[in-house]
Write a structure and sequence with these properties.
Butyryl-Coa Dehydrogenase, subunit A, domain 1; about 400 residues; Butyryl-CoA Dehydrogenase, subunit A, domain 3; Butyryl-CoA Dehydrogenase, subunit A, domain 2; 3 domains
Length: about 400
């Protein structure tokens, strides 16, 4: 057990105290902002709203709470507790600076960035002074669930890399000040590989061509389509070396998947609270809705799914804290938690009837956001396919074919 760790919960006393402060801030300060009308054309909160909440979080001492004053991170188990509390409002992670893609980008840069990159790109993110975007997914035929299909290219020209290509579903690109761009190098000797670059935004070579309407609307800037046309990036803004891009993407990927589970768990908890309050007040057929088995059993199922999801998150967090990459474990957690939380949100809508599909409460919004979670960071089916490949690989390793 780590220093000052609670034998009952597995969380450190420090994390318990931070999480309590975050929860109080989200419930008391952030929740009232849910009706704020400062929204863009896609429903996402404007930066003016986000900046206002961040200033309040800074004053309350809960801004970027998972990163400590000395720059070190809480471990994944402790982070799980804190991020779950931040997710109690859709706006919570934005307010306290634990949202995607910034949280994942901070994790990556904190682990592999050079001192110069940390000072220039990581510091303003940790301080909540700007937003970032992660440019990997591409249009049809390019990188997506299969990153090896990457078509965006980069080539050396003097002391710069020149990047060209198209990207798609780039969350928060509109308004981001920092970008992490993945591209495939074109080496003169015919070799190459994935590369990762840090860039300042906006840049005229990085053009937003379209921001489609999507089922979710909880993040600023939407999920943009991007054209990159001869973007010149100084060589010292490459993260690591040419060909190491996928390795760094994996460092970011497993914790980022798990962070999604943490945040959306908080959202599902809040949706269940709202639904519970509703069915314990409203009557039908001579008794409270909660007293009808068709309603009460659905809320019982919610408690089961929420607890199992919490345990799954903590299990995966422990794997990552052990020093293992945890790719398979993060896939298991992502599938299990996203599917379970989607069931929770769906039941909340159902037991609230007509009210559940209106904007009169946050339940309808929680449902839309959590439904999208089953797709983002890899849809359920891709993770199951990956796990099936691992099952086969492990079996064949344990049962080698006899020599001819």
């Amino acid at each position: 057990m780590t220093q000052a760790q609670s034998s009952e919960s597995g969380y450190s006393q420090r994390a318990i105290e931070i999480a309590a402060k975050v929860e109080a801030f989200v419930r008391d300060v952030v929740v009232p902002y849910e009706t704020d009308t400062r929204r863009d054309s896609h429903g996402g909160p404007l930066d003016s709203l986000i900046d206002e909440m961040k200033e309040l979080a800074r004053a309350a001492g809960v801004l970027t709470p998972h990163i400590l004053p000395d720059g070190s991170h809480l471990n994944q188990r402790d982070t799980a507790l804190v991020l779950r509390k931040s997710g109690l409002s859709i706006l919570g992670p934005l307010a306290v600076n634990t949202t995607a893609p910034d949280e994942g980008n901070m994790y990556l840069l904190g682990h592999v960035g050079s001192p110069e990159i940390k000072e220039r790109f990581l510091k303003p993110l940790v301080e909540g002074k700007c937003r970032s975007a992660f440019f990997m997914t591409e249009p049809d035929g390019g990188a997506g669930s299969d990153p090896s299909m990457m078509k965006t290219t980069c080539r050396m020209d003097g002391n710069h890399w020149v990047i060209n290509g198209k990207k798609r579903f780039i969350t928060g690109a509109d308004g981001a000040k920092i970008g992490i761009i993945m591209a495939k190098s074109e080496a003169a000797d015919g070799t190459g590989g994935a590369c990762m670059f840090l860039v300042d935004l906006p840049d005229p070579a990085v053009q937003i061509t379209r921001v489609p309407h999507t089922i979710d609307s909880g993040l600023p800037g939407g999920h943009a389509e991007i054209t990159i046309d001869n973007l010149r990036v100084p060589a010292d803004q490459m993260l690591g070396q040419s060909g190491e891009g996928f390795k760094y993407a994996q460092i970011r990927l497993s914790p980022a998947r798990l962070s999604h589970c943490m945040r959306w768990h908080g959202a599902a908890v809040r949706a269940n609270e709202i639904a519970t309050d509703y069915v314990c007040r409203r009557q039908a057929f001579g008794k409270l809705l909660i007293d009808h088995e068709g309603v009460g059993f659905q809320l019982a199922d919610n408690l089961i799914d929420l607890k199992q999801s919490e345990l799954m998150i903590d299990w995966c967090a422990d794997v990552l804290d052990s020093g293992e990459l945890g790719t398979a474990e993060s896939s298991i957690a992502k599938v299990s938690v996203s599917e379970a939380l989607s069931r929770v949100a769906d039941r909340c809508v159902q037991v609230m009837g007509g009210t559940g599909v209106t904007g009169d409460t946050m339940v309808e919004h929680f449902y839309r956001e959590i439904r999208a979670f089953r797709i983002y960071d890899g849809p359920t089916e891709v993770h199951k396919w990956s796990l099936a490949k691992k099952i086969k690989r492990d079996w064949m390793k344990a049962h080698p074919a006899p020599a001819a």
